[in-house]
Amino acid sequence: MAETETKNLLTAAHTLGLQLRVLHASTEGDFDTVFATLRAGGLVIGNDLFFNSRLDQLAALTVRHTLPAIHQFRQFAASGGLMSYGTSFTDAYRLERAAPKTSTPPVCV
Question: In the prediction, which pLDDT does 14 show?
Answer without folding.
Answer: 94
